[in-house]
Amino acid sequence: MAKRGRGRDGSAGAACPCGSGRPYAACCGPLHAGDADAPTAEALMRSRFSAFAVGDAGYLLRSWHERTRPGSLDLDPAQRWTRLEIVDVVRGGLLDSGGTVEFHAHYRLAGRPGTVTERSRFVRADGRWVYLDAEDA
Fold first, then answer.
1. What is the Cα–Cα distance from 61 to 42, expressed in whole angstroms?
2. In this predicted model, what pLDDT tens digit does every residue of 34-58 receive, in sequence order?
């Protein structure tokens, strides 16, 4: 597992796990450190995927709506999050108060690949984007 504040491989200049192509330190790193807020619902989704990839449960909880947030979150250190695909984005822009992001989050666990597919709902709470829940299928 990567050290907090660094890319998945532990280096500060490593590519961000969210797939943006930017270095972690210039992408999701500042959000994880609390130095910036995600400007859009998609940016928050990407930062949450990166938090899973680097093992930052604290950020996941902080970026979760207080009404739906669990009391704690245990991440499986054996699960390696490998790639994020954004499938669809509805609203969630700079001037919106809500939005949805559909994605495929790819991982490996016990040497086997897996995928989580979800259509996540995001809202603004106190001026910043937070994860609310997953839409019912």
1. 17
2. 999 999 999 999 999 999 999 999 9
